[in-house]
Amino acid sequence: MALLEIKNLNVSVGEKEILKDFSCSLESGKVYALLGPNGCGKSTLSGVIAGNPVYTVTSGSILFKGKNLFDMTPSERACAGIFLGFQYPVEINGVSYAAFLKQAINSRLKAKGEKPIDAVQFMKRLKTRALALGISDEMLKRFVNVGFSGGEKKKLETLQMAFLEPDFCILDEMDSGLDVDAMRVVANGVSIMREEHRSFLVISHYDNFLELIKPDVVMIMAGGHIVKTGGMELVQDLKEKGYAEYK
Amino acid sequence: MQNTNKYIPFGTDFKEVDADRSGRMDITVAEAGSYEAVFLQKNARLDINVHLTGKGAKCRINVVYLSSGAAENTINCHVYHESPETYSNQDVRGVLAMNGRTVYNGLIRIEKDSQKCEGHQNHRAVLLSKEGSASCTPELEIFADDVQCTHGSAIGALDENEMFYIQSRGIDASEAKKMLIKGFLSDILDGNFEKELNEWMAQNA
Fold first, then answer.
1. So what's the pLDDT on residue A141?
2. Residue B182 with chain A: CB contacts under 8 Å
3. Considering the entire predicted model, what is its pTM?
4. % chain B with pLDDT above 70
5. In what order do the strands lie in the sheet with A168-172?
6. Taking a C-beta distance cutoff of 8 angstroms, is the pair B77, B24 a contact?
7. To the nearest whole angstrom, how far is the Cα of A158 from the nearest Cα of chain B?
8. Rounded to 5 degrees, what are φ and ψ at B56?
9. Which fold has domain A4-246?
């Protein structure tokens, strides 16, 4: 069984149809890269999988671990193992990072019928993950994303991903606007988390980021659906020729 | 209803924290004195008048109101700068559920001889339903010419992007709402009224 199975998906925002007859099947244990020109629907796809209510699904289906995603709220999807790393992480004033992550992990534990994590264990786990990614735990005392630079926000998205241990991670252009060091933190997050039971969908425009990530499968999207699937050679191809042939 | 008169003497700092304060209050702050208040209003008529009568007198008034259903809040907060170099700050923040209603009337009055004063007034409200209403009149009456004053008001629903971001981490919609409300009020409540806020949210959010 595929981890994520999308069939004939059509999605609109307002009056505009973005995803058109989109299908793909993603297996466990693999890293998928999704590339495509601006406006082809990459971010829409990630938003729809995570359950962002701004998108309207007009037809088609998404099964995650065999379950219909459209029967689940955004938080239920997250508890089931879906994680979306945001292109523009949202600032939440007055809520500390630690309190936010504690509630997130406890919601997951509750969904599994387990007891909440105790404070000591929580901090230990969080600090271990932060250390592994080279992120200062000073940042965790501040409000969620408030006053952080673009690079810091993306590092913290990566930390959230490493901390929450989801089975399916979507990185929606998490590399955009990053310097080399921040890009390495994000790529490193993917490398240390690569496991048999986990998959990644990495949306990116940058070949140097994808070279760090080393995806197993590269998919090219245009006009609202996937037009080509292959390996890293597709990235090299795009670097030379651009998207002209897919438009 | 009980009327309160309070005098803050020279160089003294006075702070009070109270819930559902009602009745008229007249506070007089003498030279170099300061008055600070944190009020949580759920169903009451607050009528506070602060007179900054001595040079360098200060006041900081933080009001949080929670309105739902039958409850109605009125907040009248008037600050009179009657001496030079006085400072005031009114920070009023509210959450309205169901058909909750609140009226806030704020005033900063600066007399002609009260130069080099500073006065601020800020009101922000979150509407959890379409039926709630908040009305706000932040007024300035300034007769001196060398002062710094700001006033503003913003009323709106919880931010959809913030709601989705929190939910995408596994926190359900109702907990996400509570998290945002707590965050919104945290700096002016400064750790007070945690229990009251939780109880109110459990019933209304």
1. 87
2. 94-95
3. 0.93
4. 100
5. A82-85, A168-172, A199-203, A31-35, A217-222, A225-230
6. no
7. 13
8. 75, 10
9. Rossmann fold (3.40.50)
